[in-house]
Amino acid sequence: MSENIFSTFQTVVHLSEDCRSTHVFVVMGASGDLAKKKIYPTLWWLYRDNLLPSSTFFLGYARSSIEIKDFLNQKCRQYMKIKPDEEQRFQEFLEKNFYLTGSYDKSESFVQLDLKIVEIAKLGKCENVEDANRIFYLALPPSVYTSVTKLLSQNSKARKPHFTRVIVEKPFGKDLKSSNELSAHLSTLFTEEEIYRIDHYLGKEMVQNLIVLRFANQIFKRIWNRDSIECVMITFKEPFGTQGRGGYFDEFGIIRDVMQNHLLQILSLIAMDSPVSKNAEEIRNEKVKVLRTIPELKMSDVIIGQYVGNPNGQGDEKMGYLDDPTVPAGSTTPTFCCAVLKIKNERWDGVPFILKSGKALNERKAEIRIQFKEVPGDIFDNTCARNELVIRVQPDEAVYMKISTKKPGMNFDPVETELDLTYKHRYEGEYMPDAYERLILDVFLGSQINFVRTDELAEAWRIFTPLLHQLEQQKPKPIPYVYGSRGVPDADELCTRVGKYNYSNTYVWKDSSKSKI
Ligand SMILES: NC(=O)C1=CN([C@@H]2O[C@H](COP(=O)(O)OP(=O)(O)OC[C@H]3O[C@@H](n4cnc5c(N)ncnc54)[C@H](OP(=O)(O)O)[C@@H]3O)[C@@H](O)[C@H]2O)C=CC1
Ligand SMILES: O=C1O[C@H](COP(=O)(O)O)[C@@H](O)[C@H](O)[C@H]1O
After folding, report:
1. 61 pairs with which residues across the strands?
2. Beta strands of 63-110 (E only): which ranges?
3. Helices (H) then strands (E): counts for the chain
4. Residue with CA nearest ligand 1 atom 16
5. Active site residue 262
6. Fewer CB within 10 Å, N- or C-terminus of the chain?
7. Whose CA is nearest to atom 13 of ligand 1?
8. Which of 14, 23, 262, 425 is catalytic?
């Protein structure tokens, strides 16, 4: 493992040498899909790279009786990317793993969990062996959140001075009411400092970069407002449908699945004012402040769609959303949505923020597109397209600014081009940690910058809840779009008419890394 890693590396090195306390990371729901595909692989990478406190153990907890070493070796291994020369390290990782079978609703099980953690803590080489810092990752269905969190807090919290931290996965409720109820429940059991609501988009490199790009560059600071910016578009696209998990998806739909959380989180980082400092509370204060100025979405602000099979497609592409046997017949759940949000504050009044997301589209892409106003008093007879700053979150992280330049040669004509920061070229060979790696490490470090605070969550639900309720009550039929297409064409019209977005259709990108000199 090279010594590069990420911004928190200095702190991380310090942390890994910290031997004052043993840490026990408990995976609640250890036998499940999330644990298998994401959590255990992430723990392995953090362990492999020596980023965790030296005395850290992992305890799986679930109802099924499993042999944890076999589970890690046989079920999780395919997601762990273990290189041949890492086998010995992997064996060491296996030795750090434990497992306990227990229920999600009986006190006795959580008393056993407490005893097991104390027992594991004694294996640690640290001075303070009577207990351990405890991190609980709730990789569980929402139906058991309430009982698990209650029983954890009553029976399995760490004894002082050790800390307890609880990582909660979405969905954080289904609307404002249910989310507030869940938050109120959690707040009777844990302090805000103990709760880590994970939104994995906040762990992505380019999402984390937003704060640096915005607040470390004078050139952006002065133009980041309604005087210069015409509109902002934040897009999430996936080239696959429900893949047989339609039953789960149908309960939520695309708005709850990615818009109310991931895309709105990105929006708040783009739109917030400068925080007083890098401190988590200061940053989250600014995010909440801007969210509070966003009016609730109305039906007229959105276009919803649902994919139908593509008769000319391959395999899955032939199957529409309603063809998935796990989707209830006649479902009106949107798999595509384009919404235009307004921000009623001094900086952004009149600048539409377009959120666009969909499944079964033409590509995998998450990006932020900031479109600037046309040049006033343009001397080039309006031949120049608007400047656009694009921050591509995935795939292939990049930041590029579309500009006009003089066409090289004997003329005076502008031509569209770009200032291009393509990560794989500029930062070739740099280690790019997975979102979960950064976020789980943040929990060890006690950094809540990239986790969703209670008031932030409530604001996010406030914006979307009236629309979600209206959709559920009125059940408008989503507009069909073909699997593998760009989505609902009416969305382009909404983007232009309400969103003020201008697609010039003139830009051609030339990948300069492929040019021969
Ligand atoms: N560093 C790098 O790697 C760089 C790569 N590029 C690549 O060059 C290509 C083109 O660049 P890009 O910035 O996308 O510029 P384009 O002007 O081609 O596209 C702009 C956006 O407009 C949307 N769009 C496409 N068709 C329509 C339409 N008919 N009506 C309305 N909107 C439309 C697309 O979004 P959607 O379909 O999602 O709605 C697209 O993201 C991309 O593949 C990009 O990745 C460019 C610069 C740098
Ligand atoms: O939260 C979710 O995100 C994934 C997409 O995550 P990504 O990191 O692969 O972009 C999405 O597929 C899923 O439906 C949603 O619940």
Report:
1. 28, 100
2. 97-101
3. 17, 15
4. 507
5. yes
6. C
7. 390
8. 262
pLDDT at 499 over 50: yes
- Rounded to two decimals, the pTM is 0.95
Beta bridge partners of 250: none
194 lines ligand 2 (CB under 6 A): no
Hey, what domains does the chain have and what are their CATH numbers?
14-169 (3.40.50.720), 202-505 (3.30.360.10)
Cα distance between residue 405 and residue 411, in whole Å: 12
CB 364 within 8 A of CB 238: yes
Question: Which residue do the tokens 């938050």 mark?
Answer: 183
Q: Is the pLDDT of residue 9 over 60?
A: no
Q: Which residue has the CA at smallest separation from atom 40 of ligand 1? A: 503
Is the CB of residue 456 below 6 angstroms from any atom belonging to ligand 2?
A: no
Ligand 2 pocket residue status of 367, Cβ below 6 Å:
no
Query: What is the per-residue pLDDT across 283-306, written as a single tens digit (0 to 9) for each?
Result: 999 999 999 999 999 999 999 999
The least confident of 344-358, 483-497, 498-512 is 498-512
Ligand 1 site, residue 354, Cβ cutoff 6 A: no
Mutate to test the pocket of ligand 1, among 390, 422, 501 (most ligand atoms within 8 A of CB): 390
For residue 400 and ligand 1, the question of a CB distance below 6 A is answered with yes
Q: Check whether 464 has a pLDDT greater than 90.
A: yes
Residue indicated by tokens 């990752």? 137
* Mean pLDDT for the stretch of residues 471-487: 97
- pLDDT band at residue 15 under the 50/70/90 scheme: low
Query: Is 425 within 8 Å of 453 (Cβ atoms)?
Result: no
In the reported structure, the alpha carbon of residue 501 is separated from the centroid of ligand 1 by a whole-number distance in angstroms of 13
The closest alpha carbon to 63, from 28, 111, 33, belongs to: 28
